[in-house]
C-alpha cells in the first residue's frame, strides 16, 4: 500500500487557517489521517458519520485543502491534546488503552431523524461528536470538549473511575480539570469556562456548559432552581460544596449516573482553587500524577488523599504546597 505523508490545510470553526499532516493515498486522494511523533508514535484518523446509513468513512479530500471545519477541529485538537499529554511524561498506560489503535474521531454523529446530536462522548475506542441541536453548535469545534472526551480515555486507562456517584463525579471532574489546565497552557480566552466555544444562544445565561471558578453560576439565573440541588433534572446549576451534594439512590440515566455531571462541581471548584494557588504547570503535574493513585471506586476524600500524595511525590512535604491543597479541598467541604 503506497501512502505518503502530506501537509494539508483548512479553516476550523474559529475561522483560523490550520495546517496539519495528512496522508496521500496512491490513488491521489488525501486522507484525514497521519502518523505523528514518537514514544508513542500515534496514528490519528477522523471519520464522518452518515445519518441514515449508520456508517462511518475516513474523511477524504481531492486537493488537501479541507472544507469540513468539524473534521479539521476534531483532528487538530486531538493532536494538540495528545501533544500536551506527551509533555506530562509517563504514558506507560498508552499501549493498554483505547488509544493504542489510534486517536480516532467521528464527527457529524446523529440519529436516524437527521437531528443534530447534542453531545459528544468517548466510546471506549474513539471519540464521537455531534453537530449540536438545541444547546450546542458542533461539539468538535470546542478545544475543551475534545480535551474532556480524550481525558476520559486517559482516565479509563489509569484510575478507571467507575461512572457512578462520587467516583463518577471524579471521572467527570478530572476530565474538566485537565481540559481547564490545557486551556490555560494554550492561553485560551476563557480557561475556566467549559465548552464556551460550542454553545448556541439557547438561553442567555447558558454561555458555558460548566464553570470551574463558579460551578453554580447557572442556578442564579435559572428561575425554577431553588438551590436545593437534590433534583438532577430540575437543577441546572452544580454544587460547589459538599453541603449541596446531590445524593441519588441509583446510578441510572435519569439520575445522571448519580449526579456525575452535577457533583463534579465540587471537586472542579477545588481544582480551580488549587490552580489559583499553585499555578497551571504544578497543578497539571499533580492532577496527572494523581490518576495513578486514584482507584476505581475512589470517594471525594480518597481524591483529596491522592492529590496530596501526588504533590508530596513531586514537591515533598516541606513546602507550602500541601497546605494550599488542603485549604482548597476544605473550602469545598472535602475534609480529611
Ligand atoms: N459529554 C458527556 C461526557 O463526556 C457524555 C456523557 O455523559 N458520558 O461526560
Ligand atoms: Zn465527561
From TrEMBL:
The protein's required cofactors: Zn(2+)
Active site: 149, 261 (proton donor)
GO CC annotations, alphabetized: extracellular region
Superkingdom of the organism of origin: Bacteria
Name under which the protein is recorded: Neutral metalloproteinase
Function: Extracellular zinc metalloprotease.
Keyword Disulfide bond attributed: no
Amino acid at each position: 500500500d503506497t501512502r505518503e505523508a502530506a501537509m494539508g490545510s483548512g479553516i476550523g470553526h474559529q475561522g483560523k487557517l490550520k495546517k496539519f499532516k495528512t496522508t496521500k493515498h496512491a490513488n491521489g486522494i488525501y486522507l484525514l489521517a497521519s502518523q505523528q511523533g514518537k514514544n508513542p508514535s500515534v496514528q490519528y484518523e477522523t471519520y464522518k458519520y452518515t445519518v441514515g446509513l449508520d456508517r462511518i468513512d475516513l474523511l477524504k479530500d481531492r486537493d488537501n485543502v479541507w472544507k469540513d471545519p468539524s473534521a479539521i477541529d476534531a483532528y487538530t485538537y486531538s493532536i494538540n491534546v495528545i501533544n500536551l499529554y506527551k509533555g506530562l511524561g509517563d504514558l506507560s498506560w498508552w499501549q493498554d488503552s483505547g488509544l493504542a489503535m489510534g486517536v480516532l474521531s467521528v464527527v457529524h454523529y446523529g440519529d436516524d431523524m437527521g437531528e443534530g446530536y447534542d453531545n459528544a462522548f468517548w466510546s471506549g475506542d474513539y471519540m464521537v461528536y455531534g453537530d449540536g441541536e438545541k444547546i450546542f453548535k458542533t461539539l468538535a469545534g470546542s478545544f475543551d470538549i475534545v480535551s474532556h472526551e480524550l481525558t476520559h480515555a486517559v482516565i479509563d486507562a489509569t484510575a478507571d473511575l467507575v461512572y457512578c456517584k462520587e467516583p463518577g463525579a471524579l471521572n467527570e471532574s478530572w476530565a474538566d480539570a485537565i481540559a481547564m489546565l490545557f486551556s490555560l497552557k494554550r492561553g485560551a480566552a476563557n480557561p475556566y469556562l467549559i465548552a464556551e466555544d460550542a454553545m448556541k444562544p439557547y438561553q442567555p445565561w447558558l454561555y458555558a456548559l460548566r464553570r470551574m471558578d463558579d460551578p453554580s453560576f447557572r442556578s442564579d439565573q435559572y428561575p425554577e432552581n431553588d438551590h436545593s440541588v437534590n433534583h438532577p433534572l430540575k437543577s441546572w446549576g452544580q454544587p460547589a460544596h459538599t453541603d449541596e451534594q446531590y445524593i441519588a439512590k441509583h446510578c441510572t440515566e435519569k439520575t445522571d449516573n448519580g449526579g456525575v455531571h452535577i457533583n463534579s462541581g465540587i471537586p472542579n471548584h477545588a481544582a480551580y482553587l488549587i490552580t489559583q494557588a499553585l499555578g497551571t504547570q504544578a497543578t497539571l503535574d499533580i492532577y496527572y500524577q494523581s490518576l495513578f493513585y486514584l482507584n476505581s471506586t475512589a470517594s471525594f476524600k480518597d481524591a483529596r488523599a491522592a492529590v496530596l500524595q501526588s504533590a508530596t511525590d513531586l514537591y515533598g512535604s516541606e513546602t507550602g504546597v500541601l497546605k494550599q491543597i488542603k485549604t482548597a479541598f476544605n473550602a469545598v467541604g472535602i475534609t480529611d
